[in-house]
Amino acid sequence: MDLDDLMPAKKPSGVVIGENLSTLSVAELEKRITDLNSEIERVRIELDKKRKHEAAAQALFKS
């Protein structure tokens, strides 16, 4: 048996997609929306970087 098997499972931190929302308060739901909007912005920034990198690579190989 591994020592990790003896440790209790870690509860995921932050937003869990599909989580039951009925137990959350108004403040918790508002924070969740703020957290999700922040994560969406972070993902959009990374997506933009990758698209620019991809476009630069395509331009390089088309020349």
From TrEMBL:
Pfam families cross-referenced by the UniProt entry: DUF1192
Domain of life: Bacteria
Keywords attached to this entry: Coiled coil
Residue ranges that the Swiss-Prot or TrEMBL entry lists as coiled coil: 26-53
Family annotation (InterPro entries): DUF1192 (IPR009579)
Protein's name according to its UniProt entry: DUF1192 domain-containing protein
